[in-house]
Each structure stands twice: as C-alpha cells, then as structure tokens.
Amino acid sequence: MNLLNRQLIKERPYPEKVLQFGTGVLLRGLPDYFIEKANKTGLFGGSIVVVKSTASGGTDKFELQDNLYTLHIKGLEKGVDVQDVLLVSAISRVVSAASDWTAILDVARNPEVETVISNTTEVGIVFDEQDDPLTSPPVSFPGKLTAVLLERFRAFSGAKDKGMIILPTELIDKNGDVLRDIIIAMAERHQLGADFINWIKRCNHFCNTLVDRIVPGSLSASEQEQAESQLGYKDELAIMAEPFCLWAIESSHPRVSEVLSFARADKRVVITPDIQKFKELKLRLLNGSHTFACGLAILAGFDTVKEAMADPVFSKYVKQVMHKEIIPTLLEVGIDKGEASEFADHVIDRFGNPYLHHQWQSISTNYTSKMRMRNLPTIARYVQRYNEVPAYMALGFAGYLQFMKATEGNELFAVWEADLLPYTGFRNAVEDYITRLETQPVLDVINQLNRNEEARD
C-alpha cells in the first residue's frame, strides 16, 4: 500500500498565501480545514507555509507525504452519527525554523502571503526580554514574528498595503491584542525604529480570535488500519476531529474580510467586530456545564463524558442545567435565546460523541479555579435576576465539594465563604444536597431533582 502523496491525487499546491506557526492537530483540524474547504470551492486559492518551531522532531513525515494528510470527522449532529473524510492538501511545505530560517524570511518578502496564523500554546505568547529578533532564528514565537514583520517592512519600504492579518489561536483572552503589545515591546527594546513600530501599529491587523473544536489527534491503531484499507493508502499524519467547529475572528476592518476570503466558504468562520458573545457561549455552556457535571459524574462512577451522557438520568441533568439555568443568565448579557439554545444542543452532541474518550478525572484538574471562573458569575447572575435558587447549579456545586472533600477536606467550603455570603439560599441548598449525596446514590439524587422540576413545570 502506497504512502499518501500528490501523485495519488494528481494535485499541485496553490500559490502560498498563509504563514502558519505550528504543526499541531488543532491548526490542522480547524484553520487548515477551513482553508482547504475554501480552496475546493474556489473562494481562496492559496496554500499554507508551515513553520515548525520546536527543536524536537523534523519535517520528514510531511515531506514524505508531500504535506498531505487526512482529516477524519466523527461524531454526532442532532443526535445522528456523522463520519466524513477530507483529504487536506492546503499545506505547501513545512519549514524548520532551526535549520532553514532564511526560507521563512523569504516567505516574509512574498507579497501574496498576507496572513499569519499561530498556535504555539498559551506559553508561546510571552515577552522574552532576552530574545533578539535579529538572531537566526529568534527563540520565542513573538521574536520570530517580529523578525518576519521587520523583514517585510524592509522589503516593501514600509508600504501601507503590505501589512499582514495576524490570527493567533492560542487560548488566552484577547490573544491578538496581547501578541501585538509584545511585538511592539520587543521592537522598542531592540530599537528597531519608530517607522517600523508605527507600521506595526497602523498597517497590521492583530485580530483577537476564538477557536472551538475538539481534535484528539491520531486515530487508534484499529481505526487507522480500517481507514487505510478503505482509502487505499497509508497516512501517518491522519487525525480525527469532531463535527462541531467555530473560528470567531474579531475585526471590523474591510481589509481583514477581503484577505480572509476563505471565511466565505463556511458560516462557522465568523468575522465580527466583537467576539465576546462566542466567548460567553463557550465558557458558560460548554466549559461551565462540564464543570457543574464533573463531580457528580465521578461520584456516580462514570469514567468518560460519553458514558455519563448515555445514562438518561445524567444526560437530563446536563440538558436541564444548560437550558433551565445557564441560558437565562446569558440573556442578561444580550445573547439571543435561540442562539444560546442552538449552541447548547451542539454541546449535548459533543458530550455524547461516541468517538471521543474524554475522562472526567482529566476535566477535574484545577477544579476550584474552573468553578470560580466559569460558574460563579453564572450563579450570581441567576440569583440576582430571579431571586431564587438555581437547583441544578446547586446540585452541581455540591457534587464539586463532595468530590473535592477527599483531597481538600471539609475546609473547602470556607474558601467560598465570601463568594457565597450574599446567596444564603444557594448555600443552604448546597449544604442540603451534600447531605443527600452522602446518604443516597448520586443518580437517585439527580433523578429526584429532575422529577421535582418536572412537577414545577
């Protein structure tokens, strides 16, 4: 069986238009996926030069496969099993920053390359005062990007229309703003010139972005074998992704929409002046419901999210906490109920995905900080707006405390004393649920709550 290569598909890369920092599965499963779709529909016509920045490993697999890979999309959509396969040919080449930095600077001088995409993890967007953008190569990602922008500035004599659209996808708040400020600070520290700094500020667009797609990575050995048998080729870069995906890009500048023409190929790429709505939907409904459900799921004996969602009592809890209690709090911040409900339905599909093996124990990492950031504002909004106890949230909070008791002891409730002081009714409900969880099976407690809420309705 032949290794995947362009001779098999008789296809050559499009002209290079995108410079991408990172070879990870999130980039290959989301931005590169959207660009591939746009190329196939004639809406972009550009390929991606990928920079491999880490010292470990080489670019051999990409070279051997002519930079092709297969994306296997598996999951649920409206409760229906979905399995799709997309051969991605949008990457033209993968260049090692360590061994071929001059090739990356050559890309900076290409007038057709107008977009930069990155995913270097959250620790990648940091200001390293010791990093020098004039070295070959610079150490940090911001150092490398500063060097690329400086090379472009010099090549085109600071032309206004030769700035770049920069799309960091790292999971930090206001990632575009943070990256821009680091680039400016680096340029100032190394005295790269006022003209260059003004060009960065005025002619380049650092867009805040939000990405949302679960991309677990490689297929299992059995899935890989089955896929190769069906497709007729070996693919050592094959990855899997869930059906749901979203890429929200914050900008109101017409040039951003013009350059990012690939966005027109899929409504799940959203270019908008404000992405806060998408942050709230993800944080409160996806992450928040995970956090409310996590302790209860572990106490009930479930190992994975899909296992818990296969139980009708537990899955009803998750649906109810989203639809009855979290969504009403989102209306308070101007999010449309229909849009929030649609997102919640997607979350149910994602949690129930039979091809994902998301462990509850993994979700419980940094549990207290997650509960505080994701759910405390939601609890506060609900109680202040409706002046009543959100019962599903109270039970989820009790599940968190009961689960954490093994490591934190009974003192954990004291940590929340100041936060919960204004919400006496909520605290009392949590204490009552803790008592029940100590004396009754978890699913019985959840089932009783479901029945009580049905009777109220």
From TrEMBL:
Residues 274-408 form the Mannitol dehydrogenase C-terminal domain. Keywords: NAD, Oxidoreductase. Residues 17-252 form the Mannitol dehydrogenase N-terminal domain. One of its GO terms (molecular function) is mannitol-1-phosphate 5-dehydrogenase activity. SUPFAM superfamilies: 6-phosphogluconate dehydrogenase C-terminal domain-like, NAD(P)-binding Rossmann-fold domains. GO terms for biological process: mannitol catabolic process. It holds the Pfam family Mannitol_dh_C. It comes from the Bacteria. GO terms for cellular component: cytosol. This is Tagaturonate reductase. It comes from Parapedobacter indicus. The lineage of its organism: Bacteria, Pseudomonadati, Bacteroidota, Sphingobacteriia, Sphingobacteriales.
